[in-house]
Design a protein that fits this description.
Strand content: under 5%
Number of helices: 15
Mean pLDDT: 93
Shape: globular
Bound molecules: geranylgeranyl diphosphate
Radius of gyration: 18 Å
Strand order of the largest sheet: 1-2
Structural class: mainly alpha
Order of helices and strands: HHHHEEHHHHHHHHHHH
Helix content: over 70%
Low-confidence stretches: none
Number of strands: 2
Distance between the termini: 27 Å
Length: about 300
């Protein structure tokens, strides 16, 4: 039973994003020992109105497993902090060398490279402080910290980024491309869903289903991201377009062409939606979000 449109997700997201924004705002009130330039650099990037997909995934998966979303809010914000750190660092001259992110100048463009690196460092660290300090009970907090550390670590987000940077401009095949994005994009989607499940004390079959859903969703999201880089508009995306081609990057459209990439994303989404059958109607929002990933224009 698949949700036929993204409407349910869009309505949910419109309301719940406000709760996420308010929580992120609260987490970025630092004491006087935090230099004001650091505070401003963090807030510039974190409070710039990203889509908040990863925190929404945390909250939706907790709810699909029967837990009130408020209990999952610290984990939702922690994931967004790690994601934002990765965007700040990815935009640096030593990496993707971008100028524009979330409709604003990149952190290093506005605050200088050193402050951007340090804002990213601070966000990565704060994510674990928030989870260790606010998730109850302590054993669930520890399990969540372990999960997020793995997803952001050398064999996942950072490793995927290294391989992506090293591969830029070189030859590659589909297996290599999928291996990069399983770690660089997929791992953060998967962990978002898993954290919601962990906080709701979901059983292993449910955690596995969330994990499989996240893996397929993450890959489809990346394929659509590559397609948007070719045919999207900078104004609605809030970042530059056409960079992949400029940098001769290994991407799905470059390897498979536009039509086959689109077909592949659609098949992955259908497959992802099937993974949710164990949740029945409780996963209506997640089903609808899968649709949104195909339809998004930003
Ligand atoms: C620096 C360790 C390190 C990793 C960087 C996130 C990342 C890895 C690179 C950014 C470039 C990119 C195309 C990454 C793939 C994942 C992705 C599409 C990120 C953008 O996520 P969105 O679209 O962004 O959800 P918002 O701004 O809406 O949160």
């Amino acid at each position: 039973m698949t949700e036929p449109s993204s409407q349910l997700f869009l309505e949910y997201a419109e309301a719940v994003r406000l709760e996420i924004e308010a929580a992120l705002e609260r987490y970025t009130h630092y004491d006087a020992d935090c230099p004001s330039v650091l505070r401003e650099a963090i807030r510039h990037s974190l409070l710039a109105g990203g889509k908040r997909l990863r925190p929404l995934l945390v909250l939706m998966s907790a709810q699909a497993c029967g837990c009130p979303r408020g209990e999952a809010m610290p984990a939702a914000c922690a994931v967004e902090m790690v994601h934002t750190y990765s965007l700040i660092h990815d935009d640096l001259p030593a990496m993707d060398d971008d100028q524009w992110r979330r409709g604003r100048p990149c952190c290093h463009v506005k605050f200088g490279e050193a402050n951007a690196i340090l804002a990213g460092d601070a966000l990565l660290t704060e994510a674990f402080e928030v989870m260790a300090g606010e998730i109850q009970p302590a054993d669930v907090a520890a399990a969540c910290c372990l999960e997020l550390a793995r997803a952001a670590g050398p064999s996942a987000l950072v490793g995927g980024q290294v391989d992506d940077l090293q591969g830029a401009g070189g030859p590659g095949d589909l297996a290599q491309l999928e291996r990069i994005h399983r770690r660089k994009t997929g791992a953060m989607f998967q962990v978002s869903l898993r954290l919601g499940g962990r906080i709701a004390r979901a059983d292993s079959p449910r955690i596995r289903a969330l994990d499989d859903f996240g893996q397929k969703l993450g890959l489809a999201f990346q394929i659509i991201d590559d397609l948007l880089d070719v045919r999207g508009e900078a104004a609605s995306l809030g970042k530059s377009v056409g960079k992949d081609r400029q940098q001769a990057k290994l991407t799905f459209p470059a390897l498979l062409g536009l039509d086959e990439s689109q077909r592949r994303a659609e098949a992955l989404i259908q497959d992802a939606q099937h993974q949710l059958s164990i949740f029945g109607a409780q996963a209506g929002c997640l089903q609808s979000l899968a649709h949104y990933v195909l339809e998004r224009n930003r």
